[in-house]
């Protein structure tokens, strides 16, 4: 004895539908790739390939979901999109938003996370010049963590397979007949789903720990690079200051030995010329004149300048 009923689709039925759609989108994407290479060659193909894949998704859902038709996967499993709020098929605008978020949601979330969350936190706690590689790593970690958490939630509840369906509140209905055999199968499936959810939780914890280590390592390396740059800038400033000091004391460079006479300066009072104390004493002992202007002087007349 069996009874027909219209019920919410379970996890495995939704996954079968999604896998079928994903396969067809990949086939369409390959055809677009071949068309692009035939028209434009392989130049810059690696740049435009991700956009071609998004274009294939957009074309697929425009010709199915937005045209008020089932996708191939939904038709394969006999799924019907359902709006629990209005209790009818989702409106055109709701389906349009669902397609938009499904295809471009990662780009939008990446932009908002980077602009309004990661950069302000970096300016407050890390460094305003946080490297683009580190920002990309943090953004990918946050987005990946949200996706993994949502996947675990889907396997536990069976509500929404894709985050875009959470935002638009679109679920799946399926028409089926309940028998004692189907009830037993459903019970076994529930046990399998619980085991799978546990495995996903363990995987999520391990991958989160690994990703956090990578983020911490990237931030540490970036800080070390900034410290090295700061030290190099300080060394340059010290060098500039020392060069300025040197240039400002050129007038006390000894004309005899061509060394700076900073702490041991001697003055010939008759003419005012400055020399090293040792150099001028040695010269005057032999010549009794100033080495520059030949003005007569003696060793006793030489003045030792302190703190010149």
From TrEMBL:
Residues 254-294 form the RING-type domain. Signal peptide: none annotated. It catalyses: S-ubiquitinyl-[E2 ubiquitin-conjugating enzyme]-L-cysteine + [acceptor protein]-L-lysine = [E2 ubiquitin-conjugating enzyme]-L-cysteine + N(6)-ubiquitinyl-[acceptor protein]-L-lysine. GO terms for cellular component: peroxisomal membrane. Belongs to the pex2/pex10/pex12 family. It is found in: Peroxisome membrane. Pfam families: Pex2_Pex12, zf-RING_2. Its EC number is 2.3.2.27. It is a multi-pass membrane protein. The chain crosses the membrane at residues 96-118. Its main location: membrane. SUPFAM superfamilies: RING/U-box. The keyword Nucleotide-binding does not apply. GO terms for biological process: protein import into peroxisome matrix. Pathway: Protein modification; protein ubiquitination. GO terms for molecular function: ubiquitin protein ligase activity; zinc ion binding. This is RING-type E3 ubiquitin transferase.
């Amino acid at each position: 004895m069996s009874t027909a009923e219209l019920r919410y689709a379970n996890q495995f039925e939704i996954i079968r539908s999604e896998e079928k759609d994903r396969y067809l989108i990949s086939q369409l994407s390959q055809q677009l790739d071949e068309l692009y290479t035939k028209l434009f060659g392989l130049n810059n193909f690696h740049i435009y390939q991700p956009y071609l894949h998004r274009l294939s998704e957009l074309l697929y859902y425009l010709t199915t979901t937005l045209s008020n038709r089932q996708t191939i996967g939904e038709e394969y499993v006999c799924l019907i999109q359902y709006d629990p709020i209005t209790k009818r098929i989702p409106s055109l605008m709701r389906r349009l938003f669902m397609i938009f978020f499904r295809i471009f949601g990662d780009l939008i979330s990446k932009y908002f996370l980077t602009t309004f969350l990661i950069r302000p936190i970096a300016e407050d706690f890390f460094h305003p010049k946080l490297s683009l590689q580190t920002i990309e790593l943090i953004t990918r970690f946050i987005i990946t963590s949200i996706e993994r958490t949502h996947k675990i939630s889907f396997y536990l509840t069976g509500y929404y397979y894709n985050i875009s369906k959470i935002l638009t509140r679109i679920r799946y209905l399926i028409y089926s007949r309940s028998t004692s055999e189907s009830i037993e199968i459903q019970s076994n499936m529930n046990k399998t789903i619980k085991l799978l959810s546990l495995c996903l939780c363990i995987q999520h914890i391990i991958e989160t720990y690994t990703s956090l280590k990578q983020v911490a390592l990237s931030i540490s390396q970036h800080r070390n690079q900034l410290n090295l740059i700061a030290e190099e800038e300080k060394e340059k400033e010290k060098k500039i200051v020392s060069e300025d000091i040197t240039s400002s004391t050129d007038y006390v460079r000894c004309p005899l030995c061509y060394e700076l006479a900073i702490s041991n300066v001697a003055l010939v009072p008759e003419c005012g010329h400055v020399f090293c104390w040792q150099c001028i004493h040695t010269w005057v002992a032999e010549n009794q004149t100033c080495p520059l202007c030949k003005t007569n002087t003696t060793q006793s007349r030489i003045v030792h300048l302190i703190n010149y």
